[in-house]
Fold:
Amino acid sequence: MSVTLDSNQWNLVYNIFSFGLISMLACTVYTLVSQARVLPKYRNALVMSSMVTFIAGYHYWRIFNSFGEASDGFMVNVSGDHGSFNEAYRYVDWLLTVPLLLVEVIAVLALAKEVSKSLITRLVPASAAMIALGYPGEISSDQNTQVLYGVLSTIPFIYILYVLFNELTKSLERQPAGVAETVGRLRLLLIATWGVYPIAYIFNIVGDATAGSFVAIQVGYTTADILAKCVFGLTILKIARMKSHAEGMAADH
Structure:
């Protein structure tokens, strides 16, 4: 099975993959060289952020290559057979990066050890379940299967957002002056960025594979990844720097 894109659609997908790749690599470098600009207690959060974007960058390189190899002119092989466009790279990426994203948020909040451990033991398995349940629906061509696994994966998805939103809200009163506002925006960024994923998934369900649905899915997922990994990671860095300065670190770092 193949979808035939017009030249604008093909170029859009090609360019969004390229943009996703360079965004991940640039953010990896920036968060790595920013380690010295925060106190040691917040550096784990930046390490996690660098790992997230590095892993995503590698997978975007594979996605980028897979798109080129699956293309014959403007016709893209999406059959799932050998040589077709490989959507599985996204799910392998998410299986690794989503737990790290969650740990990254917990690390920058610098919560009590018991609270951090409790959050990690609840959220990491939930994130693995979310990704594992979403994949069968993503690769299926049966609409009922797509809907079933879409609903099942949404359950841990909502649970993760609910727990994180509540924990970020509870942490506001413990944040230094000026930091609470940024942490408050982080809650909204979390909802906004993660909310793009199910919207993109819906384009799998609306009917048979078409050029329009293929483009919408790839642009949607890539945009969500850039927001959830790069923009989110840079916000984590901002919070870490603000908290470091509030706790006595020189402002010129």
Observations:
- The mean pLDDT is 84.
- DSSP finds eight helices and three strands in the chain.
